[in-house]
Design goal:
By secondary structure, this protein is an alpha/beta fold. 36% of the residues lie in helices and 17% in strands. It contains twelve helices and twelve strands. Strand 4, helix 4 and strand 5 form a beta-alpha-beta unit. Helix 4 runs parallel beside helix 5 and helix 5 packs across helix 6. The protein is globular. The protein binds ligand PBG. Ligand PBG binds next to helix 7.
């Protein structure tokens, strides 16, 4: 049936005021400035956290092959990068360490002369206004590459949860003592937030907030990071502690438990494949600040496709990050932090 526009637009028309042709959504899309006025989600530099890899020894600025534009810096080579973040008004960094040595207990994670501890002190000197978030995990420090103490039972590798908690609390205290502003445990141990909160409080760091990687999936999107941080598990995988990508309801339980244990902020990781999780957690716990981590694989895929000329890097970067914010995050950890800052600066 042909639509009788003349008749429908007549004042006496019985057409519903919520329907075409009275309603035309395209009216709001015709002018660039109007589109700006009605934009619901705006990405800002203030939303971004820049991850950075710090390696032991000196004079190092090692490119990470799978993550173009990213390097492993030794502490003495950090200054330029940190100044660059500060000049671009990037508010925060997230630190990962590649220690001098690895052992079964990850003992290099708790040294006051540890690589991240030194980096924290250096960053505080160069750029005191930068917020320093310290990732808290053992996989980069253990020789087996797991996120805690490992026991082998009948040929099966098991990460001992409660033993690991003691080490995590010690690591948190060590990082806080070095000057970390926020502690971000990423190991997915049960009870980790509570153990770290207790450890920090007892050591007098009551004011240091915890950003919990509450909902961290056992994801193949971490591939490039494991090269960057040299932390791939030597045997087995992380499915015994990180979450199954198939589970959404379980993510709500993880979030609820971490809030109850005293987490000040939560994180979902990875980001783009888990927008539904972000949205559900924000819906259920709107009062808790929520972050998402656009992880290494998400970054590398965009970089690789763009390098081939298959997608427009800037547009895909902005679309992905805007979607992550729209889904309900308050801030985003992203390897694109500098690129976004430069883009929005113009
Ligand atoms: C350590 C850790 C990982 C990432 C952040 N912290 C790797 C892993 O769990 O295997 C991944 C970050 C990224 O891919 O960018 N537990």
């Amino acid at each position: 049936m042909a639509i009788d526009l003349e008749n429908n637009l007549d004042a006496t028309s019985t057409a519903s005021p919520t329907q075409f042709p009275l309603v035309r959504m395209r009216r709001l899309r015709g002018h660039a400035k109007l589109r700006e006025l009605i934009k619901e989600t705006r990405l800002s530099v203030q939303d971004l956290v820049a991850p950075i890899f710090v390696t032991a020894s000196t004079g190092q600025r090692q490119p990470i092959a799978a993550m173009p534009g990213h390097f492993r810096f030794s502490v003495d080579q950090l200054d330029q990068e940190i100044r660059c973040f500060a000049e671009l008004n990037i508010p925060a960094v997230l630190l990962f360490g590649l220690p001098e040595y690895k052992d079964a207990q990850g003992s290099a994670a708790v040294l006051q002369q540890g690589v991240v501890q030194q980096a924290i002190r250096r960053i505080k000197e160069i750029s005191p206004q930068t917020l320093i978030i310290a990732d808290l995990c053992f996989c980069g420090y253990t020789d087996h590459g797991h996120c805690g103490v490992v026991h082998e039972k009948n040929g099966k590798v098991e990460v001992a949860n409660d033993e690991t908690l003691i080490l995590l609390a010690a690591q948190a205290v060590s990082l806080a003592a070095a000057g970390a502003d926020v502690i971000a445990p990423s190991g997915m141990m049960d009870g980790m937030v509570r153990a770290i909160r207790n450890g920090l409080d007892q050591a007098g760091y009551r004011e240091i907030p915890i950003l919990s990687y509450a909902v961290k999936f056992a994801s193949a999107f971490y591939g490039p990071f494991r090269e960057a941080a040299q932390c791939a598990p030597k045997m087995a995988d992380r499915k015994g502690y990180q979450m199954d990508p198939a589970n959404g309801r379980e993510a709500l339980r993880e979030a609820q438990l971490d809030i109850a244990e005293g987490a000040d902020m939560l994180m979902v990781k990875p980001a783009l494949a888990y927008l539904d999780i972000i949205s559900r957690i924000k819906g259920q716990f709107p009062e808790i600040p929520l972050a998402a981590y656009q992880v290494s694989g998400e970054y590398s895929m965009i970089k690789a496709a763009a390098a081939n000329g298959w997608v427009d890097e800037t547009l895909v970067m902005m679309e992905s990050l805007t979607a992550i914010k729209r889904a309900g995050t308050d801030f985003i950890i992203t390897y694109f932090a500098k690129d976004v800052a430069r883009l929005l600066d113009h």
